[in-house]
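Renewal narrative, Specific Aim 1. Our central claim is that a sequence can be written position by position from structural information alone. The example that follows is taken directly from our test logs and has not been curated for this report. It begins with the structure tokens describing the chain, in the order in which they were read.
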């Protein structure tokens, strides 16, 4: 497995990580045994970074990842995220206060069954709390040995600079794919200026870019994607134009649309480590073969024009409000 560096402080991970969210949250039903087998297979194939968060479940995804790595902690980079408040299993708001930073890390460590979290992200910035206070408390966790490296998710360039001035930030995790490229104008350049690695989540457009979602009406009733504007019947039909181009490029390479979509992200720089999510071994193995796909300059140019075809916002207004630009 190819390796890539996130940041400049020594965090080295596999070129492709594994997003574990869908194994227990957001994307309909999941088989716990298959999910555990998928994580085991990922580690066998050289994937070293597993991505989870307290909000996934809430809490159950960290427990699942903890079960999967029990007895095989060495060499595994565990990335998790904090930053919300909960009541009776539901999210009630964001919380970046130092006291929540300290409480959240203890909960994550317990659920994961580990002594140190490798990469600890603030999941969404709390607009009520200066980023300096939040990151200052996160930095104290590094000093205490409870966390190795710090990350942020979906913050803007100014926040990234302010945070990095308090404590080195190793990774920024934000959405990035063939149909979502909002970070390219200011955020990704700022990360590169500061020497911060970039972790694209949803590099397969939450599964849409794979071509596997023929009709969004077929998604399970509790599937989070039903609430996303790009997955409405009208927008999904328009976004099918994107998938057709990806399919054409894939056919030229004897690859799948998923492999082409991932290969494009991987080709955007060695400082990017995408974390495609899956809960099944067969899709994991398919995704990892994206590392073998070599896109030509013409391929990249053709694929690079697709984002302008995307119909619909990526989040509903309530979730979009938590994202900085």
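The sequence written for that structure reads:
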């Amino acid at each position: 497995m190819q390796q890539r560096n996130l940041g400049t402080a020594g965090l080295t991970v596999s070129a492709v990580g594994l997003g574990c969210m869908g194994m227990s949250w957001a994307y309909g039903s999941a088989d716990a045994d298959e999910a555990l087998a998928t994580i085991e297979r990922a580690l066998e194939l050289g994937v070293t970074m597993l991505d989870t968060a307290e909000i996934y479940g809430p809490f159950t995804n960290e427990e699942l990842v903890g079960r999967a790595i029990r007895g095989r902690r060495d060499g595994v980079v565990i990335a998790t995220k904090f930053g919300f408040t909960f009541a009776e299993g539901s999210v009630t708001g964001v919380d970046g206060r130092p006291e929540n930073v300290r409480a959240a890390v203890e909960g994550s460590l317990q659920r994961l069954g580990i002594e140190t979290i490798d990469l600890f992200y603030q999941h969404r910035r709390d607009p009520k709390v200066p980023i300096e206070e939040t990151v200052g408390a996160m930095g104290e966790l590094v000093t205490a040995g409870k966390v190795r490296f710090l990350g942020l998710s979906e913050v803007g360039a100014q926040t990234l600079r302010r945070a990095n001035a308090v404590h080195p930030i190793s990774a920024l995790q934000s959405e990035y794919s063939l149909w979502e490229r909002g970070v390219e104008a200011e955020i990704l350049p700022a990360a590169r200026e500061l020497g911060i690695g970039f972790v694209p989540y949803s590099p397969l457009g939450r599964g849409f870019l794979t071509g596997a979602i023929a009709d969004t009406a077929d998604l399970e009733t509790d599937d989070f994607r039903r609430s996303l504007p790009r997955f409405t019947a009208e927008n999904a039909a328009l976004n099918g134009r994107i998938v057709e181009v990806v399919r054409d490029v894939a056919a030229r390479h004897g690859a799948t649309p998923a492999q082409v979509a991932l290969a494009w992200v991987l080709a955007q720089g060695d400082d990017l480590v995408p974390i495609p999510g899956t809960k099944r071994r067969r899709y994991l193995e398919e995704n990892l073969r994206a590392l073998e796909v070599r896109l030509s300059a013409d391929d990249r140019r053709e694929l690079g024009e697709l984002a302008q075809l995307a119909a619909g916002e990526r989040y509903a207004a309530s979730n979009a409000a938590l994202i900085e630009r």
